[in-house]
Specification:
The chain has 1011 residues and is of the alpha/beta class. The strands form 10 sheets. It has a 7-stranded mixed beta sheet, sandwiched between helices. Helix 6 packs across helix 14 and helix 11 packs across helix 12. 58% of the residues are buried. The structure holds iron/sulfur cluster (SF4). Iron/sulfur cluster binds next to helix 1 and helix 7.
Length: 1011
């Protein structure tokens, strides 16, 4: 630094933000950015993005910076609590950890001895599912799940049953080469900073960004084009694009037969037991029809005849040196007919019902726009291919001297998946990508390791118990066929949430949204204990919120609660705390070890595998609560391991009954899921092994020394075509990501779904009970389909065959309105007036993450309440002015809220921010806090059942909660605060003092002594 000029003071232009710094991982949203936490005098001074971290490269968002106020939140829980009043009253007494753990063990021990399934263990925004799922497995309960069932399991399942990977956080656009990005239903959550960084790169390069979303906010606001689609019609739009690409012959057939199943033959034998399954050889290999004039290294199975193609023969579909045929009809040696998958696709999607003109009105998108987008996709993919001069070898040993890619990328999230037609919509998007040859090629969507996995992933859900009482496999997994379901001999559900039953067969993430109703009803059996972690189920994480509170507090005739015990762990005084019998206070994210594991939800990117840790910046005992008392809290993961040892669970207690692990940090280091495979992949064995290796006692220190994360680059020749790149497959196998190095065939046609359809037709040993057969047969279509979301149909007697939509007591029946949904017309063409003509959806704001963020002192300064946003034209139609109060009614209930005009919304849709509304008295906010007075939840309007009442309000394939199917009506109302209001929760008094965090340090920096 140059010497200051005479009479100029010496200025330190780069003062240190604090005295000490620790690098760890943010937990203010699901993104898991690297952060540097600066402290002075034992208090946080500043949180900074870690420039070296692979996820965020130094970028920090408002939430991440506000982690300071999260750590110092007055809502933090301080000690274990035991209920002393009625459940729901919020009356507790503080107890010590020994008593808390003894009580929990006393409740759980007899369950495990009697029937482990009487424990339902469900977690919310848990980032430690590799532990919690394993703990449930060791306990022996099948009733375990995390929150994916009400978040975006359609996205995960749609991807994993098609590509072996998915959008969510398991893949990314090729930011360096993409020319055209479509963002489908993406709000500002999940993968937040990587998306922001990537979008910035696309903007620099002039790539086109198209946002498909009923609301234009966040990423959509910077998109080059916004397509304000009607909720629930994304699949229809995708099919129209597919229709146009097929019609104009803009399809990458080379890609489709190399890496996908376009040429695989499907048996066409209506009524037969194998109708719709792939034709296979004696060794089970799928077959295709190939031109006879090309030699093959594989056994020839001569066919008897073919329609449309002379000189063909059967060949294994993965054979090289063949010319597969993708259209036509072929006769197999046994006389049955078979057609290639591509032929089936062409038959379906070239149908005029999927033309732009046919879908335009229903989607709310002009047909000309659909045609133009299809042309733009085709131009980007086929007129501007990306060629990387990188030599690589494919899984079959063929050498390539370059990587050819289609620079069209897609990213999608909850907006398309949280519908009752979401699974098929997610599959439709993947089919669209595949037709363009735009999966894991330069410029397209790319897998992040450990993905892709085999399609579908091989791990089935655990069903049976071993001799030591543990389950034979983790409770969650992937169903391949009816025999994998968790149903009893009568075909009825075995799980309390009915996941993996005939009602929701592919519910890979379980169904958190059904567990409380079913536990209350004893359906299919009563449970003893409901254990929840970070799941605000009595408020913003529940549909049918009012009833959920009642179910939690309802009693049997003998005076006992219908759900006898509720154990809850959270770091904060959420609305759910009052409904627990035993509260186990968690730490903040700066007070414990965590593993961001490749066994769970990794932080990899497309060019490298990565995982990370959190490690304590503070000992919670040194972090006083609002009353100045030291907090006595423990990380829930360590509590689980302690509890497991007390219960003598296998893998947690040694032969003498003592604990095997000293806590979660010890478990992270020493636990092996398979030989050499643990929660963290970095620095295993002697510290030089990565991926697989013996436990390394020094592993956590290596992570700390490296800034809290580990990352290993994929070799350059292995970074694309991961599903069929020998270099990648061998690298992934070496790291333990894949069991074998075989190529992974991407699946346009989902054969597992056809197995369910055949069962519904009566074939096989496992068939659905009669009442489910039509449903399974309809929705288990192996090619993606579109259907009207259930709520829109069933809440309208004129459309619903069953037509008897029960009017609930106190629910205002809708008044007739002008038709707002022109796609809904009667057969005679007369516009139909839907009783609930508007769609209603929530979006998560960029600046908050669930209910946690909306109690944060700094983030509340951005928004302390939400509004019902509607288009001014919609307001005019309903006689509603800007900031007027409105009554919003669904088939299920009504709320009164304040409206605000916004031009960034499709006119048939109203929307609001998610999880800002709070119950009075919760989160230690003032009882007249704006969040409670003017904030609100749409959840009160959302039923947990379909209007017809026969199934959960969910996707029939995966059980994904259909939050965004909500249909509403509006009318002006007079009010001064939102309705409904619930009795204020008691809890400790609100502390009005400002939450200061830096004054002492600032004064010290000025040379003053303070206290
Ligand atoms: S995007 Fe999420 S993880 Fe990253 S800094 Fe923001 S809140 Fe933290």
């Amino acid at each position: 630094m140059p010497a200051p000029a005479p009479n100029e003071p010496a200025l330190n232009l780069s003062p240190s933000p604090g005295d000490e710094v620790r690098t760890t991982t943010c937990y203010m949203c699901a993104c898991r950015c690297g952060i540097k936490v600066w402290t002075t005098d034992g208090r946080i001074r500043y949180i900074q993005g870690n420039p070296a971290h692979p996820v965020n490269q130094g970028v920090l968002c408002a939430k991440g910076a506000a982690g300071i106020m999260q750590h110092y939140s007055p809502a933090r829980l301080s000690r274990p609590l035991l209920r002393v009043g009625e459940r729901g009253s919020g009356e507790f007494r503080e107890i010590g950890w020994d008593e808390a753990l003894r009580i929990a063990a006393d409740w759980l021990r007899p369950i495990r001895e009697r029937n482990p399934d009487e424990l339902a263990f469900f977690t919310g925004r848990d980032q430690s599912q590799a532990l919690t799922g394993w703990w449930a497995q060791q306990f022996g309960t099948i009733n375990y799940a995390a929150h994916g069932g009400f978040c975006s399991v359609n996205m995960a399942a749609g991807g994993l049953y098609t590509l072996g990977g998915s959008f969510w956080e398991f893949g990314e656009p090729d930011w360096a080469h993409t020319r055209y990005l479509m963002l489908w239903g993406v709000a500002e959550d999940h993968d937040s900073n990587p998306l922001k960084l990537g979008l910035g790169r696309l903007k620099e390069r002039g790539a086109k960004i198209v946002a498909i979303n009923p609301v234009r906010s966040g990423y959509g606001a910077i998109a080059d084009e916004w397509i304000g689609i009607r909720p629930g019609t994304d699949g229809l739009f995708a099919f129209a694009l597919i229709h146009e690409l097929l019609r104009s012959d803009h399809v990458d057939l080379d890609y489709l037969v190399r890496y996908a199943d376009a040429h695989w033959l499907v048996i066409r034998d209506p009524g037969g037991a194998q109708d719709g399954l792939f034709a296979r050889d004696d060794e089970g290999r799928p077959l295709c029809a190939a031109r006879a004039d090309r030699p093959s290294a594989f056994r020839d199975e001569s066919p008897s005849s073919a329609s449309g193609h002379e000189g063909w023969r059967l060949a294994p579909a993965d054979a090289t040196d063949i010319s597969p045929l993708v259209v036509g009809e072929y006769t197999l040696a046994d006389g049955r007919t078979a057609v290639p998958v591509f032929q089936l696709m062409a038959e379906r999607y070239l149908d005029p019902q999927y033309s732009p003109d046919a879908v335009s009105e229903r989607c709310g998108i002009p047909a000309a726009t659909i045609r133009r987008i299809a042309r733009e996709l085709a131009a980007a993919a086929f007129e501007h291919p990306v060629r990387l001069p990188v030599a690589w070898t494919d899984a079959w040993g063929r050498e390539h001297d370059e990587m050819l890619g289609r620079p069209v990328a897609m990213h999608a999230m909850r907006g398309i998946s949280a519908h009752s037609n979401g699974f098929h919509t997610c599959r439709a998007l993947h089919v669209l990508q595949l037709l363009l040859g735009a999966v894991d090629t330069p410029g397209s969507f790319r897998f992040q390791p450990p993905y892709p996995k085999p399609v579908p992933p091989p791990n089935r859900p655990g069903k049976a118990r071993r001799a030591d009482g543990s389950l034979d496999a983790p409770p969650l997994g992937f169903v391949h066929a009816p025999e994998d379901l968790l149903v009893d001999a009568r075909g009825e559900p075995r799980r309390i949430d009915h996941a993996f039953s005939w009602s929701y067969p592919l519910s890979a993430h379980g169904m958190l949204h059904t567990v409380i109703r079913n536990a209350h009803a004893g359906d299919p059996y009563p449970i003893d204990t409901l254990m929840l972690f970070m799941a605000n189920m009595s408020w913003n994480s529940a549909m049918n919120t009012g009833e959920t509170m009642r179910w939690l507090t309802d009693k049997r005739d003998d005076g006992g609660y219908r759900i006898p015990h509720v154990i809850y762990s959270d770091a904060y005084a959420s609305e759910m705390v009052a409904y627990a019998d035993l509260v186990l206070p968690d730490t903040t994210y700066l007070e414990r070890f965590d593993a961001i594991s490749l066994l769970d939800r990794p932080i990899s990117d497309a060019d490298g595998a990565a995982d990370a840790i959190r490690h304590p910046v503070f000992d919670p005992a040194t972090q006083a609560d609002g009353d100045g008392r030291p907090r006595d809290v423990r990380g829930f993961q360590s509590v689980l391991l302690d509890l497991g040892a007390r219960l003598g669970l296998p893998g947690m207690a040694d032969a003498a009954g003592g604990p095997i692990y000293r806590g979660y940090a010890d478990y992270i280091v020493r636990h092996e899921r398979a030989p050499g495979v643990g929660l963290l992949a970095g620095w295993r064995g002697d510290g030089a092994q990565h991926g697989k290796g013996a436990p390394n006692p020094g592993q956590l220190q290596r992570y700390i020394d490296n800034g809290g994360y580990w990352r290993e680059e994929i070799p350059e020749h292995a970074r694309y075509f991961k599903m069929a790149n020998r270099g990648y497959l061998q690298w992934a196998q070496g790291k333990g990501f894949l069991g074998a190095g075989d190529a992974i065939a991407l699946q346009l046609y989902a054969e597992p779904l056809q197995r369910f359809r055949l069962a519904a037709q009566g074939h096989g040993a496992h068939v659905p009970p009669p009442r489910h057969r039509a449903r399974v047969e309809t929705y288990f279509d192996p090619l993606p389909l579109w259907y009207e979301p259930f709520e829109g149909v069933q809440s309208d007697a004129a459309q619903d065959d069953a037509s008897a939509v029960p009017a609930r007591a106190g629910v205002r029946r809708p008044v007739a309105t002008e038709p707002m949904d022109p796609g809904l017309r009667r057969d005679d063409g007369v516009p139909h007036t839907h009783p609930f003509p508007l769609h209603a959806i929530t979006q998560r704001p960029m600046f908050m993450y669930h209910a946690w963020g909306s109690q944060n002192a700094w983030l509340r300064q951005i928004a302390a309440r939400n509004w019902l946003y509607l288009h001014p034209d919609t307001g005019a139609k309903y006689g509603i002015g800007d900031e007027d109060w409105v009554e919003v009614a669904s088939h299920h209930g009504s709320i009164t809220v304040q409206a605000k005009f916004a031009g960034n919304v499709q006119p048939d849709t109203v929307w609001t921010w998610n999880a800002i509304g709070k119950r009075r008295g919760a989160w230690k906010l003032a009882k007249d806090a704006p969040e409670a007075e003017h904030g609100f939840l749409l959840n009160h309007l959302i039923s947990d059942r379909t209007p017809r009442g026969d199934y959960a309000n969910a996707d029939p394939v995966t059980g994904q909660a259909a939050w965004f199917d909500l249909r509403v009506n509006l009318r002006p109302a007079a009010a001064a605060c939102t309705q409904p209001q619930f009795a204020p929760l008691p809890g400790a008094a609100h502390d009005d003092r400002p939450l200061r965090y830096g004054a002492p340090q600032r004064q010290r920096n000025r040379g003053a002594r303070t206290r």
